[in-house]
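Support reply, case 0932

Customer input (verbatim):
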Amino acid sequence: MQFLKRFLGTSPLMARVAPFVVFLVLTFGQGQFGAASAYWFYLAKTLVAVWLIWEMRPLVLEMRWAMSWEAVVVGVAVFVLWVGLDSFYPKFLRSGVIWNPHEQFGQNAALAWLMIVTRILGSTLVVPPLEEVFYRSFLYRYFVRPDFLSVPLNRFLPWSFLATAAVFGFSHYQWLAGILCGMAYQWLVLRKNRLGDAMTAHAITNFLLGVWVAWQGAWQFW
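Our regenerated output:
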């Protein structure tokens, strides 16, 4: 653990990028070792990410949750947009099967619900800090200056705004919703001059989407 803290503390860039890269590598491992590995890898990467966030916290000062009415409105609006736009544009091709624990472990099996709850909690509490730190704090500012900490969070940089939203969007199967989502979260950072509102909005969106998936069986969103 001390090694990880020293490693992340080697530079501001490392503290913000390395945890996201580790999370991404574990994501690529999902489903590579049999169908069930998609679920067990998600559980494992969520636990690893909790540890990474714990170690990053003293090093990444902007990674602090914040609540505001704007965060709630954006979080709910992005969820509505994500679901509402789904049938109106072509998506990227998926590799592997759609994530559906009921098919893998049995309808309403305890393991199926464990994986569903893990995914909802992971996407709500773990994904927002990792992604917002990487995209909105690091990448948005690094695009214009390698010394990214010298760029204020509330500085509007048109080219970087579009580029960061595009990178964020194209990392999702629902790329169009992802681009608009990235713009909305970046707007929050610019408006509030802090990262916490975007983290909260991201968490609200992902929580509502997770509940929608489990309730409606809309597994294509996962």
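We compared this against your earlier run and they match. Two observations from our side: The two ends are 32 Å apart (CA to CA). The mean pLDDT is 94. Please reopen the case if you see a mismatch on your end.
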